[in-house]
Amino acid sequence: MKDLKPKYFLYARKSTEDDDHQIMSIEAQLFELREYARKENLEILEEFQESKSAKKPGRELFGEMMTRIERGEANGIIAWHPDRLARNSVDGGRVIYLVDTEQIAFLRFPTFWFEPTPQGKFMLQVAFGQSKYYSDNLVENINRGIRQKVRRGEWLVRAPFGYVNNPKTRNIEPHPTKSRIVVKAFEEYAKGTHTLGTIADFLADHGVSTKGTPPAKASVARMLSNRVYLGFTYHKGEYYDGSFAPIISPTQFEAVQKMLAKKSRPRVQKVPNHFPFAQFARCGECGSMITAQYATNRFGTKYTYYRCTKKKGVCRQPYLSSSALISQAKNLLQSVSLPLSEIENMEKQIDLWEKESISERGSVAQNLKTKLSETKEKLDKLVSLYLDGDIEREMYLQRKDLLLRQKVKFEESFKDFGQQRKNWVEPLRSFVLSLREAVILEKGENYFAWKEFFQKIGSNPILKDKTLSCNWGELWEFTASAVGGKGFEKIDSAILASAKSLRFLNSEQVSFGGPYRARTGHLRNANAALYQMS
């Protein structure tokens, strides 16, 4: 060995690049190493401080230090422990090679002994090997823990928006407030009247923003397509059954996915807050939409008038004041309002029919059990095919995602199969609830709610010669005639006859009117029965 004067580089390293983590680690190393160099009377040419993991090669400052040693600027290194220098075979081999070529003559560690002898080199190799073993073993332990968490259905990382991490269960659970915002965002987008931009504004209005800026459209799209809200956990590009509570039902989730695929656009209204009946009715003369405008008299009083837009040509229909239109709308609302006592009698009859339907649920439950079992068997077979190498990973992930979504949908259907079986009652219950809603609306002045109610129960509202008219659905037309004739004593039996006609219809086949719903022959038959009993 050449007789060289020791010149040292001091090297201190911490494992993370985040300044908030392990900040005391590097300070403690510097203090201990400087004190060690003072006691041993070692000359330090320069100090190198680095905040980067040594698990992989590529540390800039470490590479610079080794290059300068190769150039002969120093011949020794001071570090806290050999694992500060290397935790991978490349960097460890580089240090040992420089020791073999005598470019590194001195390695000093306060916690480890080293001399450039065969025994010292062997112990250095053991130290580097232990450091690498520690890193590799730590990775295996972490991966094993992750696999176990996935098997338990636990969420692995920070909770997504709408959930909160529970340190006691080491899982996530719905946030009491933010989960409702997620549900509302899904409900609003499923209506088809929103874009990703308006949903982003909706989230910002509810406090979901980044430094006062609404979320980006891409972030909103990821949220609306995130299967965590179905109760799935995610790991390495694959979804698994989660053990935490879902926020969104499969039906709602699938509806939103369809709207995302269609890229629906909203129906924009310029002034929705000032003219409640704008774009509500059409002109009875030319068929154009009815709009609204302000007018001010010579005394400065502002009035609201409704008129034809005249977009289809010349139209001679006069203007109608807002107060007159509201008065006519209230008369229409009163024409379909029944006494609460009659509504309560209908609700009792509906409850009785629901109880009778309980006995019919057995076959539905068995059918759902069979479908759920078949889906689980398909999942097992798919996993077996993938493990045997008979199917590509991309195809496996696509099929698994589809089967998982089918499985969770069957599970939800099995849970609520009784409700699905009694769907023939739901259109009737919806009608009775609308009757109760009419009574409540009649007593208030929420004109926007009036407009939505009329659109729900009627169709083709017309304004002609300052008169507002509307085509009711069949049951609502009968209700209006009953109210007009004060035939309340017969309405219960008429509704009963209608319900028996609708008994074997589901909620998609039957409608009680509205601008977007088609009436069926079954409903016309029910309407005939109503008038026969009236």
Characterization of this structure:
The protein has 534 residues and is α/β, with parallel strands linked by helices. Helix content is 51%, strand content 13%. It has 19 helices and 14 strands. The chain has helices at residues 23-40, 60-70, 82-85, 89-100, 118-152, 178-190, 196-205, 217-224, 250-262, 322-334, 340-356, 362-387, 393-415, 417-421, 426-442, 447-457, 474-484, 488-501, 521-533, and strands at 8-14, 44-51, 76-78, 106-108, 163-166, 171-174, 232-235, 238-241, 282-283, 290-296, 302-308, 320-321, 458-464, 467-472. The strands form 5 sheets. The protein has a 4-stranded parallel beta sheet, with helices on both faces. Helix 6 packs across helix 9 (250-262) and helix 17 (474-484) runs antiparallel to helix 18 (488-501). The longest helix is centred in the N-terminal third of the chain and has 35 residues, at 118-152. The model is unreliable at 502-534 (pLDDT under 50).
Provide keyphrases for this structure.
4-stranded parallel beta sheet, 534 residues, alpha/beta, 51% helix, elongated, 3-stranded mixed beta sheet, single chain
Strand content: 5-15%
Walk across the major sheet and give the strand order: 2-1-3-4
Overall mean confidence score, pLDDT: 79
Radius of gyration: 37 Å
**Percentage of residues in helical conformation:** 40-55%
Overall SS class: alpha/beta
Put simply, the count of helices is 19
Give the N-terminus to C-terminus distance in angstroms.
118 Å
Count of beta strands: 14
Unreliable runs, pLDDT <50, ≥5 residues?
Answer: 502-534
Taking the sheet with the most strands, its summary is: 4 strands, parallel
Shape: elongated
